[in-house]
Known about the structure:
Blueprint: E1 4-8, E2 18-21, E3 33-42, E4 48-55, E5 66-71, E6 76-80
Antiparallel strand pairs: 1-6, 2-3, 2-6, 3-4, 4-5
Amino acid sequence: MARHLFHRTAQAPRAGSEVWISPAAGVHGLGSFWAMVVSTTPALVAGAAYLRVVPIDDIDGDPVVRTYYVRLTGLLVREPR
């Protein structure tokens, strides 16, 4: 089984990384869930970014890419070693 490294970041995560979307990252009203990063776009505000992600639970089915504005300091990132 693969080991994963969890960390918080001040930089936008790479495509293929998994992120924990939650209110701590500034995303409210959706609960919390793991999502895979499709692409990132820097925001005009320092410490924030736009992430295009697909929820991990939807990857095997019919995935829908969603864009979220997140605070990077509240984002938990999981990258395979």
